[in-house]
Amino acid sequence: MHHQSILPDEDLASVILSDLKRVVREYATAATESTCPEIRKLFTDLTNSTLNMQGQLFTTMQSQQMYNTSSPALRQEIDKQGKQYDQTLQKTNQFVQQKLSGIAQQSVYYTSRPNVAHIPQQQAQQPPVFYS
Amino acid sequence: MVQPITAKELEYIADSMSNEDLLLKQNAVLASSSSNQALVQVAQQFIATHQQHYQTLLQALHQHSNAAPTQPQQ
Q1: pTM here?
Q2: 3-class DSSP state of A3
Q3: Do A23 and B2 touch (CB under 8 A)?
């Protein structure tokens, strides 16, 4: 025999789900602000464990038709974002290469044997373009 | 050798035990009041996990208690 709760099942489960979300964030924050290595590990482990619980509760609620996920993203919207961030990535790669070649030139200037071993690799490997 | 914990870490540990305690009670209510078997099972499992989290946090406090200074540090 079940006791009557103040809240309907669905609402109580939602409260727990949002509390788990909050606690995951708090554990992650605590981990980033820890000084003691053991305490950092403790909070990191608790972050992962709580994240798993949140995922499990979400999956259960979804299987019980207690959760409406938002509507699927449209393909043109995905492609728009993809194109935009392809451009961003290319510009950033140019920026990084400029900065890195700056370092190489500097080391040519200041030392007799510059260490540029990592530079050619950067140039040789062009990033893949997904949306062009 | 156990390193002393900071005042901030102590606050986080205390707040965390408070969170775990609240979640434990919420899950106890869900486990006892729900007629949905899937939810009851998850809630029962979560009670055990939150108890375990709570114990781990409490242990961390005890472990670091001996390394802590008894006078305020400069």
Answers
A1: 0.80
A2: coil
A3: no
